[in-house]
User: What shape does this take?
Amino acid sequence: MTTAIRTGTFAVRPYTPHCRVIHDEGDHAVIGISSGNGYFTHERVLDLAGWGLAQFRQVDLIWTDMHVAEMFEALGYPPVEAQRKAVKNLRGVRAKVTAAVSSLDPDGERLRGRPMSALLELPAYQRIRTQLDALLTQDPEFREVCDQLAARFLADKLNGRPPTDRQREVCIKYVCAEVPLFLDTPAILDVPSSLNCYHQALPLAELLYARGWGLRASRNQGHAVITPADTEERSA
Assistant: This one.
């Protein structure tokens, strides 16, 4: 990962030098907002949106809204309670994103907020998702990375208990819904180049930006880890 770029509230670490070029071009950024994640407070989402507008010509705040109820049910909640919790979490994250857009760009000219499910109708997203479904059974390297991501997500939920096959299966579906935005956001959202931003380093990036053959991010796709600047300073 490259040296951190400090821009006011946040420190940004583009994953590769080429990701740094995409950051510096400033065409577009996707900022992923996870539902039910305490990291994404109202203030944090507003600050992230403001940072994005200061650095990029267009910004999409995209929150995960797919397979959320399934995940709660797999974790042991009764179906009705799982649905209730999913609705509550999604209502909360939608309110945070909507408030940020309304405050910073009410006309939606440069800042957009949308759920992941809104991408389902886009041809490029559909194409990539179909490819990923095939790769889960055909590409051991990709499957291993998805398993790592699922294990990482479930570790916090299961308090050390091993996940069941059902929990792993639902979590991988949840993960794969997001992967297209790490692969080729320019094709999906029709932008020249795009930086996918998240607050944690992900094993997926190691695969997508490795040398050689295999599943790789498109040339116009970048990735960066963006964290609060004070956190970066404490860890330096």
Q: What stands out?
A: Residues 5-235 form a domain with the Rossmann fold fold (CATH 3.40.50.11710). The mean pLDDT is 90. The longest helix spans residues 79-104. The first strand starts at residue 5 and ends at 7.
